[in-house]
Amino acid sequence: MNCFVAMSFNTSLFILIVAFSSLALCQKDEKKSGPPGHFLFGPSYLANLTKEEKQEYYGIFQNQKLTIKQQEEQRLAFAKKHGFEQAIKDDIKLKEENHEVVRKERPELIKNLLTVHNELMKIFDNKDQTLTQQEAAVSALRDKYPNAPATLYYISRLITGQDRRVKPHHKHH
């Protein structure tokens, strides 16, 4: 049985808060890119476009025959035509910068996951501590390995099927 399943509600809630606060602190001010067909909360640079123009813009992403490079070129051409080329260039640059951060930092995070997992198991298996002491131990671990506890929490949610956004891959006979 997965040890995370047996955690108390307070501990689960604490780890959830840790996960979301960790994600919030790590994110940059990214521009939102609305899903195709959803115009209510798209990027601010699309605000002055007509519904048809927005559909044309999102159509670029829906064209499965375009390469990523071709999509970028078409986005830039569309943006230039409508006066927000710099915003698209900034989006592309941010995406490339984020990709490089992930390329650089993910291997270290992965390398530390087993160590952090083992430490978390020791913390949660220790029944001779108060909840405050447990939270302090998790906090100290998070200080040492900032993204690993949140990553492990997410993985545990996938394993236990508690994440509703991801469907378990069990075959039913």
From TrEMBL:
Among the Pfam families in the record, one is ANIS5_cation-bd
Q: Which residues form the SXP/RAL-2 family protein Ani s 5-like cation-binding domain?
A: 52-159
Query: Which keywords does UniProt give here?
Result: Signal
Highest taxon, organism lineage = Eukaryota
Q: Record's InterPro entries?
A: ANIS5_cation-bd (IPR003677), SXP/RAL-2_related (IPR052823)
Record's signal peptide: 1-26
Coiled coil start-end: none
Listed name of the protein: SXP/RAL-2 family protein Ani s 5-like cation-binding domain-containing protein
